[in-house]
Specification:
Its EC number is 5.3.1.12. Belongs to the metallo-dependent hydrolases superfamily. Uronate isomerase family. The structure is a single chain. The protein folds into 2 domains: 48-148, uronate isomerase, domain 2, chain A, CATH 1.10.2020; 157-467, TIM Barrel (Alpha-Beta Barrel). Helix content is 49%, strand content 6%. The chain is built from 20 helices and 9 strands. It has helices at residues 12-25, 39-44, 51-55, 60-68, 90-99, 108-120, 132-143, 150-157, 173-180, 197-200, 207-218, 225-241, 261-272, 278-299, 315-321, 340-346, 363-372, 390-404, 422-442, 448-466, and strands spanning 30-32, 159-163, 190-191, 246-249, 302-305, 309-310, 329-330, 354-356, 378-380. It has a 4-stranded parallel β-sheet with strand order 4-5-8-9, covered by helices on one side. The longest helix is centred in the middle third of the chain and has 22 residues, at 278-299.
């Protein structure tokens, strides 16, 4: 990445220290332990499509902003649930997006995209309605070059490990191809993550059918609760064989609950019969977090908990275009009491590792930092989704460091579907950390030698350790 003063302090003394610290972090390999890049991109290593389909169509940060100004996603090429027509022409999509470029002033989306243009593609023409075609043509020319195919970019980005995210119903075929090519498997460069939401959340569309499919895949009788647990354990084994070191749980809340086996079985049966209500679904999700923690004690997978998202809040958008297209919103989330059953059971067991995330930044100092600073099993995940912006990354360090320190946090995760944005997002996080550490140094709260060690830990060593990157779990 270019050595500019982007995101560095205005104060000259702090800025000078930030430059030196950033120079240590910038060349570190990228550990991307949580994200949603399609593994097929790397398994098949085909040239990327046109610039619009690479950078705009799949990026709900971009399409939701234009929707907020009256531009429907179909006009930006976003696929529809029923297969009805959407804009097919990449250049038309690009021009439409460029005409609304001013909407992104001051947003992290603009920062990421501009840095992607310059740092990834070497395109320095500022985007505007007048330059839309010129920028499009420059990007398209780059995408036609072999150096801009996915695996070549992976190498140039300096990615050491990239974790994707799959459900227990995924056949992991793309990961098998990656492993056959020497890119995947335990200790590989591209690994998977076990995300069981579609079989653990009774409110997930088609939950009962998903559970039946889980039984077919594993040969277990998921008509019973005991068989269901056995099936989950089998799939976890398959994911570990494909390189997984983590699970991921995207629950609406952080609630945990310890049910007896008989009570859990009755609730499970109620769900299979279609009789469970919203309260039952929340109870089952809460109980399953404890079950997944027990499984993690056995197989070593790190748990990641991403609560607080109200899924598909924009019902029109969901009905028209489906999941994960910008219709989800954050909500206030309580952790202290919600996590007590889990922490009572396993919070002091260092064999368990739980990485907590939030969409409610007001919990940083009030709940999350004190919790992570007091339980061996807990680590704080980086701000994500609506919060993975320079200002919130800075506030995160300011809010949590005094209670939890640096070493009860888990390093940066990009949580992105946009493959080409990965180096940019990690660079932003490293710059923010350099700026924060520089302030501690110039305030005589930390020696620069310690700050230098810390920033390399945050950028590289800490995420490897917390997420067990490079470890064989079974």
């Amino acid at each position: 990445m270019p050595t500019t003063d982007l995101l560095f302090p205005a104060d000259p003394a702090q800025r000078a220290v930030a430059r030196r610290l950033y120079a240590l972090a910038a060349p570190q390999p990228i550990i991307s332990p949580h994200g949603h890049v399609d593994p097929a991109i790397l398994a098949e290593d085909r040239p990327f499509p046109d610039p619009a389909r690479l950078l705009i169509v799949p990026d709900h940060y971009l399409t939701r902003m234009l929707l907020s100004q009256g531009v429907p996603p179909a006009e930006l090429g976003v696929p529809t649930v029923d297969g009805s027509p959407t804009e097919p022409d990449g250049r038309t999509i690009w021009r439409r997006f460029a005409a609304h470029w001013h909407l992104f002033r001051g947003t992290p989306s603009r920062l990421w995209l501009e840095q992607t243009f310059t740092d990834v593609f070497g395109v320095r023409t500022p985007l505007s309605p007048a330059t839309a075609d010129a920028v499009y043509d420059e990007l398209a020319a780059r995408l036609a070059e072999p150096e801009f195919r996915p695996r070549a970019l992976f190498e140039r980005f300096g990615i050491e490990v990239l974790a994707t995210t799959e459900s227990p119903l995924d056949d992991l075929g793309q990961h098998a191809k990656l492993a056959a090519d020497g890119w995947g498997g335990p200790g590989g460069r591209v690994i998977t993550t076990f995300r069981p939401d579609n079989v653990a959340d009774m409110e997930f569309d088609g939950w009962a059918g998903n559970v039946a499919r889980l039984g077919e895949i594993t040969g277990e009788d998921t008509g019973t609760y005991a068989g269901y647990l056995a099936a989950l354990r089998r799939r976890r084994e398959a994911f570990i064989a494909a390189g997984a070191t983590c699970t991921d749980h995207g629950h609406p809340t952080a609630r945990t609950l310890a049910l007896g086996a008989d009570e859990a079985a009755r609730l499970y049966d109620k769900g299979l019969r279609g009789l469970a209500d919203a309260a039952d679904a929340e109870t089952f999700r809460a109980h399953m977090l404890l079950e997944f923690a027990r499984m993690s004690l056995d197989d070593g997978l790190v748990m990641q908990l991403h609560p607080g998202a109200v899924r598909n809040h924009n019902r029109w958008l969901y009905a028209r275009h489906g999941r994960d297209v910008g219709g989800d919103l954050p909500q206030a989330t309580e952790y202290l009491h919600a996590l007590t059953p889990l922490l009572d059971a396993y919070g002091n067991d260092p064999r368990l590792r739980v990485v907590l995330y939030t969409l409610d930044e007001y919990t940083f100092s009030r709940e999350l930092a004190p919790l992570a600073g007091g339980y061996a099993a807990l680590y704080l995940g980086a701000p994500w989704w609506f919060l993975d912006s320079p200002e919130v990354l800075r506030r995160f360090r300011e809010s949590v460091t005094e209670s939890a320190g640096f070493y009860n946090t888990a390093g940066f995760v990009d949580d992105t579907r946009a493959f080409c944005s990965i180096p940019v997002r990690h660079d932003v996080a490293r710059r923010v950390d350099a700026a924060y550490l520089a302030r501690l140094v110039t305030e005589h709260r930390l020696g620069e030698d310690e700050a230098a060690e810390t920033i390399v830990d945050l950028a590289y060593r800490l995420p490897k350790k917390v997420f067990k990157i490079g470890e064989n779990l079974l």
